[in-house]
Amino acid sequence: MKNDSNYIDFGERGRFNIKNKLNELTGKEWIKFTKSWFIHKPPRRKETEILHPAKYPESLVKEFIEFFTKKNEWVIDPFMGTGSTLIASAESQRNCVGIELQKKYHKISSDRINKLETDNKIIPLLGSSFELNKLLIKKNIQQDFDYCITSPPYWNQLERNSIRQKNRKENGLDTIYSKSKNDLGNVKDYNEFLDQQSLIFDNIYDVMKPGGYLTIITNNIYADGRLFPLAFDTAASLIKRGNKSWILKDEKIWLHDDKPLIALGVNNAWVGNRHHQYCLIFRKDR
Ligand SMILES: C[S@@+](CC[C@H](N)C(=O)[O-])C[C@H]1O[C@@H](n2cnc3c(N)ncnc32)[C@H](O)[C@@H]1O
What we know:
Elements: E1 7-9, E2 15-17, H1 27-33, E3 37-39, H2 47-50, H3 58-68, E4 74-77, H4 84-91, E5 95-100, H5 103-114, E6 122-126, H6 132-138, E7 145-150, H7 157-160, H8 162-170, H9 190-207, E8 208-218, E9 221-223, E10 226-228, H10 230-238, E11 247-255, E12 276-283
Parallel strand pairs: 3-11, 4-5, 4-7, 5-6, 7-8
Antiparallel strand pairs: 1-2, 8-12, 9-10, 11-12
Helix pairs in contact: 3-4, 9-10
């Protein structure tokens, strides 16, 4: 029989163990989140955010943040984009630093953050995550972080996806993030991309507390008639970084069941309708 003085009863939500080391969830909520796949139907994006070619939903990020942190802990996102991680952190009463290379996306984030009412520290930085340490020092942020959640460019997939490119171009929307040489999405060679991406996660490793978790949302991608196992290679590359090796803990698969099926390769050859993404979960050694 469990000692009841260790538990707070939250009714429908279940019972919260006051010795919970990681988060503020009840046992029932904890178990629910550990399922290896999920379907997430986010609300429609607003006009300004549609300009950005690859935003993830705040509601999804919020679930991860609430699993991997407690209130007032610190979250970091080295590929901030339109600031989804920062908004989700503020809504969950966590502090957050985001880094974005492009002025126009940094401005979208800043404008969104300025409308928030929050007592937490929500800090959007403009610059390259290759220079993460310098940026933090410059802004006098001496923080070690509890959690990182982010979605890097999926190699140079934006440039390659011609159907999507055509539709967005016709609507006057961005088809790539930028032409900057510091933009990870502009690295042409696949292996070079993996190396560069690892350097940014080395930087995150340096500012992460021992035992802190990292979630990377990415995907395997189909290009030039073959599948590039980007998600798997991302996982493989981060666990082999010498004294900055992350421990791979798991994957959660985000299923999109609301996308229409497109006739790809019919009567000719296998081309799949890829309607899922990977959320890779790593941890820094304690
Ligand atoms: C997949 S998007 C992230 C979108 C974001 N999660 C959101 O919901 O808006 C990747 C972002 O990384 C940015 N980026 C690319 N290289 C970068 C770098 N070296 N440092 C910081 N940001 C970078 C791109 O400009 C782009 O906005």
